[in-house]
Design brief:
This protein is of the alpha/beta class. The chain is built from eleven helices and eight strands. The structure holds 3-methyl-2-oxobutanoic acid and sodium ion. The site of sodium ion has 5 residues, from loops. Homodecamer; pentamer of dimers.
């Protein structure tokens, strides 16, 4: 496989091909996902929940994300490695850069940060210093205590317009990608159409430029509550590798997400 880079993702996007992304936390799964055609491996702070059993992502540290990032980077040869900046690790642009240095020295090619328009200064600061950024907007799980739960965002006309304005501001600040979580499909479609950079959706409808799922959800092994946007791709498959391949195929041909996975 050829290395997945920001220019190669832009080329996929320009050609109208969907981008397949999955969360990944170790070397063995990284190798398997890559062989199945997954373009981006995300070391999500979801690792606090799916690997460590916490009830939110808030306890996760930069050191923990860096440990899993190094493992994933050793297992992958061509996929893009994206690492999450965990809660409390990007309070200022300078602190964000120090956190990114740890993650990129562990093997990340790009970082993902949760926020909204206020994040633009940090995104600009990082991109100008060689750190590509994916801006995560919509439902941002690190804000669970402010949001009052894991709730769909952008349901009103005003909040949908605010999300689009935030996405444009983050693109203007240099974001390489925008991740949209748990927003109505109409918002996913509208924001994707407004941006030049690719969008990655999770619970954001079929019109995003790509899709992401948490690996444990895809395999049906996470014991917690199953979100509407989750699909168990192990059903009907004989191996984990086949489930990853089925996910990639469904993202590429647009059959995932289906209506039942959308808001
Ligand atoms: O941490 C994570 O797994 C994520 C994805 C759900 C996008 O941020
Ligand atoms: Na995350």
């Amino acid at each position: 496989n050829k290395a997945v880079t920001i220019p190669s993702l832009r080329a996929l996007h320009a050609a109208g091909e969907k981008i397949a992304m999955l969360t990944c936390y170790d070397a063995s799964f990284a190798s398997l996902m890559e062989r199945s055609g997954v373009e981006i491996l995300l070391i999500g702070d979801s690792l606090g929940m799916v690997c460590n059993g916490h009830t939110s992502t808030l306890p996760v540290t930069v050191q923990e994300v860096a440990y899993h990032t190094a493992a994933v980077a050793r297992g992958a040869k061509s996929a893009m490695i994206m690492a999450d900046l965990p809660f409390g690790s990007y309070g200022t642009p300078e602190q964000a850069l120090a956190s990114c240095v740890q993650l990129m020295q562990a093997g990340a090619h790009i970082v993902k940060i949760e926020g909204a328009g206020w994040l633009a200064d940090t995104v600009r600061f990082l991109s100008e210093r060689g750190v590509p950024v994916c801006a995560h907007i919509g439902l941002t799980p690190q804000f669970v205590h402010q949001l009052g739960g894991y709730k769909v965002q952008g349901k009103t006309i005003e909040s949908a317009e605010a999300l689009k304005a935030d996405a444009l501001k983050l693109q203007e600040a240099g974001a390489a990608l925008v991740l949209l979580e748990a927003v109505p499909s109409t918002v996913g479609k509208d924001v994707t159409a407004a941006l030049a950079i690719p969008t990655i959706g999770i619970g954001a409808g079929p019109d995003c430029s790509g899709q992401v799922l948490v690996m444990h959800d895809l395999l049906g092994v996470f014991p917690g509550r199953k979100a509407r946007f989750v699909k168990n791709f192990m059903e009907g498959q004989a191996s984990i590798e086949a489930a990853f391949a089925a996910y990639v195929a469904a993202v590429k041909d647009g059959s995932f997400p289906a209506l039942e996975h959308c808001f």
